[in-house]
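tool=predict chain=A
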Amino acid sequence: MTTLNLCRIFGTVRDAAGRVRSNTLVSAQAVTPQVNQGALQYNQAVTTVTDGAGYFELFLERLVQVNFVIEDTGVDITKTVPDLASQDFTTWA
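tool=predict ok
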């Protein structure tokens, strides 16, 4: 059995005025396909919804390039998941 090394990506979603955004969809999907039994396969998106304080967390495989989207905020970026146990989204470089 293979155990994935996961990184916890977390943060608080806010609107342009700085107010927290609850019930906002946050998702990440691998950009490159993974090989599964010799066949290329795209992973389904890992998703969550922010809580009442705008907080979210996702657990993503380390060192995988992902497309990260926060619904209705304009955030739609591609990043490589760091090789860390956790990373605050606001300081993810």
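The domain at 6-86 is CATH 2.60.40 (Immunoglobulin-like). The chain has one domain: 6-86.
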